[in-house]
Write a structure and sequence with these properties.
The complex is a heterodimer of chains A (180) and B (114). By secondary structure, chain A is an all-alpha fold. Helix content of chain A is 77%, strand content 0%. In chain A, helix 2 packs across helix 4, helix 2 crosses helix 7 (127-138) and helix 3 (43-59) crosses helix 4 (70-88). Chain B has five helices and no strands. Chain B has 114 residues and is mainly alpha-helical. Classes of the chains: A mainly alpha (180), B mainly alpha (114). Chain A binds chain B through residues 16, 18-19, 21-23, 25-26, 29-31, 33-34, 37-38, 47, 50-51, 54-55, 58, 112-113, 115, 118-119, 134, 137-138, 140, 165, 168-169, and chain B through 7-8, 10-15, 17-19, 22-23, 27-29, 31-36, 38-40, 114.
Chain lengths: 180, 114
């Protein structure tokens, strides 16, 4: 039987057990990396940020109070890393723009299951909308958990999610009409 | 199920599909290993900056030690007088400084790594 996250966290806090932390990384790396990939649309950069986020989480693990889910706490750290990197490295912004323009916009999206199409659809959203949508749909956080992770007010998160979702729906509807 | 619910389900499925390759055993294992390896390797830049700052502080404090030990009265007769050259203010200050610098160099990187 797998030990719950809270038990592993307690073990890491008490003994700095790297193996226990490795298990936490194994469990949550997909969530954190997918979230960062959708946010920055650059897989290599997202993986670097995910590594930094896990290292930061290890250093700050004593501050996890267990009030919310461990994955929400982890997402808030990853989001902070994303913000810090975006502010600190202007070159990152340029790389992201290059990646964005590297996508072939002439090709009509086929299906939202396609990763490139999903990323292209997300690129049409405003930054805050994209972050709120990714947190709620990719990470599976509730609106209040996403509000806590991003530091945005709950009402703002809800409206960003609703607006972003409506834009995505319109985008895919239009794409399907064009394809048929 | 409303149209909105159906779209929600499709959107969640699309995000899950996009994340699926990251959940593969080999992928998660490799990523987890690289994070754990980084944990056992302290950030060299941080160690150098903190170690350098600590050593500089110790060196500055060390230069002040001479005035502290300068007021000492060294015996001029007997056994201690023979070892008097070891108790000159400069030697004592240098020894104290060496101990301080050595402690900083030995303890700080371990504290950062731990």
């Amino acid at each position: 039987m797998k030990a719950p996250d809270e038990e592993l966290v307690a073990l890491v806090v008490a003994t700095k057990n790297a193996a226990a932390f490795g298990e936490l990384v194994r469990r949550h790396q997909g969530l954190v990396r997918a979230m960062l990939q959708r946010m920055c649309r650059n897989h290599a950069l997202a993986d670097d940020l995910a590594q930094d986020a896990f290292i930061r989480a290890y250093e700050k693990i004593g501050t996890f109070t267990g009030k919310g889910a461990f994955k929400s706490w982890l997402c808030s750290i990853a989001y902070t890393e994303f913000l810090m990197a975006a502010r600190k490295r202007r070159s990152t912004e340029r790389a992201m723009e290059k990646f964005k323009t590297g996508l072939d916009d002439s090709e009509a999206p086929r299906d939202m299951g396609n990763v490139v199409d999903l990323d292209r659809a997300l690129a049409t959203l405003k930054e805050e909308e994209r972050i709120a949508v990714v947190m709620c749909y990719s990470c599976g956080l509730s609106h209040s958990e996403a509000a806590e992770a991003t530091g945005m007010p709950l009402g703002t998160v809800k409206s960003h999610v609703n607006r972003g979702r409506a834009k995505l729906q319109a985008y895919f509807q239009e794409a399907e009409e064009m394809a048929s | 199920m409303t149209m909105d619910d159906a779209f929600d389900a499709r959107l969640k499925a699309a995000f899950a599909d996009a994340a699926a390759p990251l959940e593969r055993e080999s992928e998660s294992e490799a990523f987890s290993r690289s994070v754990v390896e980084r944990l056992s390797r302290p950030d060299r830049k941080r160690v150098l900056i903190l170690g350098g700052a600590g050593s500089t502080g110790s060196a500055i404090a060390g230069t002040q030690l001479e005035s502290v030990f300068g007021n000492m009265h060294v015996p001029t007769e007997g056994l201690l007088a023979n070892a008097g050259f070891l108790m000159s203010p400069e030697v004592l200050a240098a020894a104290a400084m060496a101990v301080a610098v050595g402690l900083v160099a030995a303890v700080l990187p371990r504290r950062i790594a731990g």
